[in-house]
Amino acid sequence: MREFGYQRAYDVSGAVALLDGDGEARFLGGGTNLVDLMKTGVERPALLVDVRELPLDRIEPAGDGGLRIGATVTNSDLAAHPEVRRRYPALAQAVLAGASGQLRNMATVGGNLLQRTRCGYFADVTSACNKRNPGSGCPAITGEHHNHAILGASDHCVATHPSDMGVALAAFDAVVSYETADGPGELPLADFYLPVGETPHLETALPPGALITGVTLPPTPVAADSRYRKVRERASYAFAIGSIAAALDVEDGVVRDVRLAFGAVASRPWRARAAERALLGAPADAENFAAAADAELAHAKPLPHNGYKVTLMRNLVIAVLSELAEEATR
Amino acid sequence: MTTATQGSVGTAHTRIEGRDKVTGAARYAAEIPFAELAHGWLALSTVARGRIRSIDTDAVLRMPGVLTVLHHHNAPRVDSDYVGLLGVPPDPSVALFQHDRVVHMGWPVALVVAETSEQAREAAEALVVTYDQEPHDVAFSAERQAEAYPVDGHAPGVMEKGDLEAQLASSAVVVDAEYTTPEEYHNPMEPHAATALWEGGRLEVVDSNQGTTWVAGELANLFSLDPASVRVRSEHVGGGFGSKGVRSHQVAAVMAATVLQRPVRVVMTRRQMFSLAGYRSPTAQRVRLGADADGRLRALEHQSLNMTSSVHEFVEPSAAASRAMYDADAHHTASRVVRLDVPTPTWMRAPGEAPGSFALESAFDELAERCGIDPIELRLRNEPAVGPVSGLPFSSRNLIACFEEGARRFGWADRDPRPGVRRDGRWLLGTGTAAASFPAGAMPSTAAVTAEADGTFTVGINAADIGTGARTALTLVAADALGVPTDRVRVRIGDSDLGPAMIAGGSTGTRSWAWAVTAAAEELRQSLAPGADIPPEGITVRSNTAEAIGALAQKERHSFGAQFAEVAVDPATGEVRVRRMLGIFAAGRIVNPLTARNQLVGGMIWGISMALHEEAVRDRATGGVYGADLAGYHVAAHADIPHVEADWVDDPDPDDPIGIKGIGEIGIVGAAAAVANAVWHATGVRHRHLPIRPDRVLMAGGDA
């Protein structure tokens, strides 16, 4: 593998300065994805700036009653935090549904958001891939795409974002904070990932050289009654073939508030706003849940071998919302 | 010696080397240090078929630490025109760098050798190779039957008895179904790794393999060396499963050590293993069963197709798996191959029987349903008295005992045969069963047993312990044959200088080695006068079992088993989870119950994995495997494996000195069919294509 430099940063401005906007430098969090990609040659950084010692490992109340999660909080600590478990249970469940215990002990919140797709063509440097090598083509569209995107993809890339955590964050309107040499900035998660379009190699709206410093969850009362369900080809240690983060508030049998986001169906965690709109104020029954799913999935453009995901997501919406509705009436 | 402890065989014994392994003291092939060690890295083709046009070595030779680049212009010549220990010519794929042809995606085109492994890797990845690419064909499917032809592998390609069409025509019930199994990989935990060096005029290779006699012989043949001048050692092996014979890494290491005259190590990466370490071919199988209304078979046809490379025939003898199982008036079996631009497949745990039993035992479940007969009762009604095709007697056949004991312990008698009627929340529940068999055999081996002056005994047997517990089993066997406790016996294995012995393969290793050890030990025991002094050099007796094994009568020799599974299926998501599994086996005398259970449970878990997870996707455009790593190729994780229980019935082989048959492979046989049959019982839908993925279950409106 390519020889690379390694520097450890101890404060945020120092980390940003060490990276210095260098396109061949990368921030190193838990390394659970970046180091793998370095081994296979997908990533060939000249410098790693280790950010694990930064003082960003706290989960604290945010000013508006929400929760601020530091960028270097490990996935394990995030899932175990009492406030997360109490107020945003789907987030804790999503994190625990991902990876393995060892990986969650290493992986950070910031790194989780920036992890790369697990598309097999992206991971194989001998293969064409528009995301890794812009303009080289997307073999997945005519090749293996059994676990590729059905929503928001383009003719240039059909890869999915692999995060479970991000799906719950998308459902709860999380906001990403970052730092650059020019000062701090914020991006709602809804705007954090760029549309695929013709530039699948451009994945986030972060300015060059920006370091993620944290994620803020707004106070979202409906999130206290939330659930994450992940379907995968084995019971653990596998990426989703379809997942859902859902929160539901039902009063007198009518949906008063709802949050829905899908995983493993798009290049980013997919907030199902059309489904949410269809449900607000509607009776909380299976028929409406199905109609809401259909409203969202009407935009789906499945490929020849991943059409099952439309059925799967529809079934998941009905199943998980039905469970939440039933629990709400108890 | 009548006062010594008797009866080590049959008692549980932890692994002799267990402490070394868990403390890290046991060193694996790539961990053993050598002075002046250089590191080789294989560069693999990025096209699936064509010719190498150019290799730009100049730039790479100037990179830090690079010592040499071997390729088809400068590599030592090798000879692949011979027949090796297993009675077959080598796969020409191991004759590295002999010509400019590229035979499959990931074909070795060069070896870059450098001072460090990292330097070698960086240089190998920087090496620019250009190709005259040719169109390739990797599209395996049942449609390729027209181009296929039968091949005799370790079993005849075609065996036929009776008039198949006539018997089918007169059958009250006919099952005619097609089954497929995908390309499957047996990547062991420990990747393939070898270090080669010349020392005192001898070629020394430290390797991870399934038989050093075998690998030493192959290397001697390939490099035209006196067999006595080649020594291969392989002390600890982190899994083999059929993949660890002679492979590119040893050949490349020997070439580089010869050219550079210093030790050279070559290790495969996980990704390289998906083109260099072998795999199980996908199979397309068709089973036709014709039966009377009471389930008695009139016709059994089992056709299997697999792919092989363009340079070597390897047949996955899936149809042969039916030959010993059930009798029928007409009995036709044929295993065929089609040649494609793919790496040569190889033996993978239970070659033939693993995929073959999925088809046959699934079809039997379908026949039971059609006849309205309990699946176990159907098997009892078709139990043969002699080999259904061969007419030979069975050495022993205790399949019925396995089903009876298994049914009792699994609670089969309470089973409601109707499919799709049991629920637990969102899960549909079902149970299934299947039979298992695997050939039992022994191959000639030699052993030496020495009575030492201090009262201990040293056994030299060139066995391979690939994680099976062979070293421990042979210690128990030797202790009993010598009539001493196990702590007075030291067993040395994994060194070709110990003399010829069978490989760890075909479920024949322990039996073959134990026979040789017993022969030498018993002779030594008889020759030792009680109380006599032992000279300082000890007293050694050697054995060779060739004659005794050659004198064995022709019989149908097999292990048998009955597999039971309970599954839960969520029809809304397609998820299938196994809830419990039980396997009862009749597999000869069990030497070490502790490691035997481990072997059998391991095989059953692999069967769950085969049923639900394992599948390599070959990309038709590139010709290579998509997702060629253990993130892309799923095997069962801990959470997929519930309570799995394996046990056995008494079944000593009457023709073996110890009564052993062999247990390495039978655990996986029938396991996938038991799971698939349980999925049918849960949902009412037959799944004839493995793996039973969520999308297949989800989208299966009717039969999948």
Automatic annotation (TrEMBL), chain A:
PROSITE patterns: FAD_PCMH (PS51387). It comes from the Bacteria. Pfam families: CO_deh_flav_C, FAD_binding_5. Keywords: Oxidoreductase. Residues 1-222 form the FAD-binding PCMH-type domain. The keyword Oxidoreductase applies. It comes from Streptomyces coeruleorubidus. One of its GO terms (molecular function) is FAD binding. This is Xanthine dehydrogenase family protein subunit M. InterPro entries: CO_DH_flav_C (IPR005107), CO_DH_flav_C_dom_sf (IPR036683), Diverse_Substr_Oxidored (IPR051312), FAD-bd_PCMH (IPR016166), FAD-bd_PCMH-like_sf (IPR036318), FAD-bd_PCMH_sub1 (IPR016167), FAD-bd_PCMH_sub2 (IPR016169), Mopterin_DH_FAD-bd (IPR002346).
UniProtKB/TrEMBL annotation, chain B:
PANTHER family: ALDEHYDE OXIDASE 1-RELATED, XANTHINE DEHYDROGENASE. GO terms for molecular function: iron ion binding; oxidoreductase activity. This is Xanthine dehydrogenase family protein molybdopterin-binding subunit. Residues 23-135 form the Aldehyde oxidase/xanthine dehydrogenase a/b hammerhead domain. Keywords: Molybdenum, Oxidoreductase. It comes from Streptomyces coeruleorubidus. It comes from the Bacteria. Transmembrane segments: none annotated.
